[in-house]
Design goal:
Number of strands: 40
Distance between the termini: 30 Å
Structural class: alpha+beta
Largest sheet: 10 strands, mixed
Shape: elongated
Amino acid sequence: MRFPVWRTLVARLALGALLAVTATQADASSPITKTTVAVADAPALAAALGEQAAASAVDVNEQPTSRAGDLVIARKSASTSASQVVERVIADLDATYDDHTTVPSAASAGAEMPVEIRITNTGKRTWVAGGDQPVRLGYHWYDADGHTLLGDGARAALPADVSTGQTTTVTVNVRAPQVDGTYVLAWDLVQEGVGWFSASAVSMKSERVVVGDGVTFYGKGWGHGIGLSQWGAQGWAQGAAGPRLSGEEILAKYFPGANLVSRPEAPPFRVLISAPSNGCVGRTIFDSARMSSEGGMRLVNDADPAIVYAQAAPGQTLRASRSGAAVMVTDEWSRRVVYAGRDAVRVVPVQPWDPISISEKGLSYRGDLWLQTAGGSLTVVNVVSPDDYMRGVLPGEMLPFWEIEALRAQAVTARTYAAWKQSSASEREWDVRDDVSDQCYGGHSAETERTNTAVASTAGQFLFYDGEPIRAMFSSANGGATENPGCVFNAIRVGDTWGCAEGWSYLSSVPDPAELAAYDKRGANPYAELWAEHFSGGEIRAQILVDYGVDIGQFLSIAFNESAGGRPISVIVRGNRRSVDLHGDQFLRRTLGLASTMVRTAPF
């Protein structure tokens, strides 16, 4: 017989209406305090409980079976009175299930998996692990409509007696249903020979499991989800989730506790524009760079700019190349070598406002160009002021026609990010790269009037915390909530799984309703829509073998070890040969290529 959840609730409500508590007394044969009740109308009680009571209450003279996988629905014997049922239902039992379990979110049909669950005894009775009537942990399977599919799965013994207030961890071998579909796995304690705790109004813990071939990941967002959301900034500036916010207010949303400070004399940034950087345009510098400027330029010694090696006329091209371990610079008009040596050199425009063009990149840049050889290739670094750098970054990171306050928030964020990278770049010859590994930088060629206005209105502004620039991270879309980097990039091993490392308070997880409601002239935020990617069990097995060198065998199940923000810190993949606990961001976004780690195995 199948009993939907709503019928259980109706039965319990009816029971409460029919009972009148008359006294509390100590059982002479037991130190356990019990509540004695008077039944107002025993036939009405029996009718109210009906078949649900028969299915959930085990007669005191019956010993439930515990064979794994058997469909066992215990029934009340005809000799059991209604008051006996009530005495068992109203008991000093209670339990709290920990939010974290290792229940798989997706599994293959019929797969058997060991699952760990933590339970706390919040009642007034000790759970006895041994004897004739031990307390054990079992489970029920329900289908998507709440009908009972399996009334009694495998039961697991408690490792020891559990006193009031104590917490224990129990491992149960769970067998998935044989038919593909979405199911609810409900955890329920049982005292053998007495009954299920759920019959005593102790809540079960329910978890959704998708059964099928492989896994379908449903997700929202695009990127790591840490810090500022670009679509979220657009939404807050539009007033998509409340009043319109200024750039400063948007920054306070995403970086709580950080301070907006002005540093007009901040040192220039050093931007790597040669290999492996590609400027987000797919073009890079390997062994040579042809440079020219409409106002002319000078080639000088980097350590002593008073040493001038060449003076190029307006439009004249100097070609830098690698010659062994040395830099060689040639005047392309005369084909004369104007410099050859191992010292770093710098190309400086005659007029500081004139950009320098590099034909290999197809772009022009404000500031100076620093040249050196390293690692067997020519290294070219653009040395540029923070605000001139931002003029070349902002159009590549946010659409120029977006809300001006969103652009202003992005400008401060990107400028601060570069300053943070600079603070840890003491052993490098550059601070940031010009591509997605840091920030897309198109130099002077990328500038627009609207983005330059946003940069000018935030000139010299940075976000600081404890006197230092913050790690001002951002992504396209977070899926409705930001994440702590300690749970993503900096996740650490904790025992045999992964946990969140200590993060920064200004990058704590915060809800982001404005992102989900954001739009622009093209339409609604496309990353607010639910996307889906399916992988067969064989594909998951192959990807793990390639990236991690582990053959899990036949795929059985996948489970998420989630952070408080709702993203997987790690992903537990079980096979019939091996099980692996993989770093969540690396496995989902790098190995599987998913757009985001804001994922589930069923639509949400």
